Give the backbone structure.
Amino acid sequence: MEETELVKRMIDGDMDAFDRLMEIYQPKALRVAYLISASYADSEDIVQETFVACYLNRHGLKNPEAFKGWFYKTLSRNAWRVCRKKKREQPAEEIYPEEIEAPGEILSEIVMKEEETLIYEAICSLPVKHRTVLVLYYYNQMSIKEIAKVCGCLEGTVKSRLHHAKMKLKEILEQEESKGGSAWTILS
Amino acid sequence: MDNFILDNKIRETLDKKAEEAGADAFAAQRIRAKVYSKLEEAEHMKKRNWKKTAIVAAAICVLGSMTVLGLGKTVTVTGGSSHADIITSYEEAEAKQNSLDSQVKMIEKFANGYEFDYAVPVHSEGTDKDGNVTGKETTLRVSYVRDGAKEISLSVSRITMGEVGEPDAVLALEDGTELHYSTLVNKFVPVGYKMTEEEQKLMEEGKLNVAEGADEIEIMPSSSVIWVQDEITYHLFTFSQDMSADEMLAMAQEIAESE
């Protein structure tokens, strides 16, 4: 069944349709939440909250074809709320790396190149809204227009956040390079 | 530095990092189970919220004579809230409270361990015996929990300035505010329910609240502390039967004496 049909049925309260939408969206949503929050434990909570909110507020979705954007808008807000809360409760330097490892983290640490670790750390140091734009653009492959709707801002703001994020990453990586780090030399 | 290379490196890094979150085969099951459990909880909360609204209305209606903004006598108060409006962060609840009525007092934590759980805006309307609207307001109802259960809620209203009937216990504060503790039996009934003579008598005495709108008849006792400060009626109430009058009065005192 087409996604739009599933969404229409979910709006009518069909739990089977909602269940199917969860199956379709959950894997990617978990990864997006993980990349935005940088915490595996939080990413599960963010995704749960997002599905719950989607079902409870389903009557607010006037255009079923816009489900994807609506879903990621809810997910982003939940992720921002979690990040805000975490920032209030913890000193910044303790936020990353997270206290609970993701299931694949140990393996990934081995296979992730040094330069990728550096890039990831730099991404984590960005403000959460800039990080969100970066994740939605590069990982979720959404257009500038779609991201603007998700983030509730102008397309120009998305472009500026992307530019700022990239400049910041570039700066960090070039600093590393100038220190004589081997990781980034292949990029220049 | 080449932008194209940087773009690719960001993409590759995020793709690889994202795979970490996909390595747990049980995540989908866990998320699904929690989503359904939360939806069930929300449905339960929706029912409880309706009951709470009925209790607040009852407290306003049965506990003596009420003047509504000087416009006349309120005989019916109806109220409603939406689950979609629930606020789960105290900071946001505080901001909402300030936007609705900055004079209303609320606190985040009580000395006995109760903590803020969530808040929900409630829209109320008072009408007189001829059905004329005597007052309308939107207030925030705040719920507190201890050990994740045993909920207690705080409601406020400017519509009513009710004189509390015969309370079971009274605590007078230094500034002259009197906190009135009383218990009430609530009977939630389907629409069209015919009350018995005894029930009518108990309602007149302020000992019974009959609220229409339930799927089936359900009886739930509740305990309340009501007081008035700065023309605002505060109503702290719980369905829990484990709380003593002293404990509830102490909680009400904390709110009443807060800045």
About this structure: Helices of chain B lie at 3-20, 27-62, 90-100, 197-204, 245-256. Chain B touches chain A at residues 1-3, 5-7, 9-24, 27-28, 30-32, 34-35, 38-39, 42, 83-84, 89 (CB under 8 Å). Chain B has one domain: 24-256.
